[in-house]
Amino acid sequence: MEDSSKEALMEEAPPRYTESPRLPCIPHELKNLLLMVALVVVALVVVNVAFLLLGLHLSESHAETVLRMSIQGLDGEGSPQQLAVSRRERSGTFAVRDGHNGSAAVVYDYSKLLVGYRSWRHRACYITRVDKDNFPGLDAVTETFQRRQDEDKVGDKAVPLADRSVLGTTINILCSAVPVFWA
Question: Which of 26, 47, 141, 151 is the most interior residue, by most CB within 10 Å?
């Protein structure tokens, strides 16, 4: 290569870069209008999401209030109950008192339409079928099962349930080590 061509290149100033030309096909007024429309759409989406989240929060807190009222009573009096809910199994499990020093578990199985009761002081489990439109309250269920449990003590020797496939998973686990009777 020649030295003169190198020198000529080095003596020249670098090219000037200029701002890219604006798109001539979109008028300035149309750009402003498109920008305003985009901002309005974004604002509407944000407002809708905010209202949906607010509605979800209100319905959740309302459901908790209703559940709390149904467990403790309408006046808020009474001892609070412990409730475990399984959405996958569609069941609810309550811990209840059985006499003075005992405890029991009541399971509402909404998929099989069964209610199960297991007292930890007794070696038996009791189940009953319920109507899908009329589930009995916790107090009524507890009283019924405790009455049935007392009848078994007196001498009514019922035959335990042989086919446990009618039970749901939650009741099956609860009653796995004891015989199951219909109440």
Answer: 141
Residue 75 pLDDT grade (very low, low, confident, very high; cuts 50, 70, 90):
low
Separation CA 54–CA 177 (nearest Å):
46
- Residues paired with residue 125 on neighbouring β-strands, in sequence order: 118, 180
Q: Distance (Å, rounded) from C-alpha 142 to C-alpha 138? A: 6
Burial of 117 (0-12, 13-18, 19+ CB in 10 A): buried
- Dihedral over Cα of 65, 135, 85, 53: its sign: negative
92: helix, strand or coil: strand
Structure tokens at 152: 């078994």
The pairing of strands 91-98 and 82-86 is antiparallel
Mean pLDDT over the full length of the chain: 77
Q: What is the pLDDT of residues 23-32, one digit of tens each?
A: 567 777 888 8
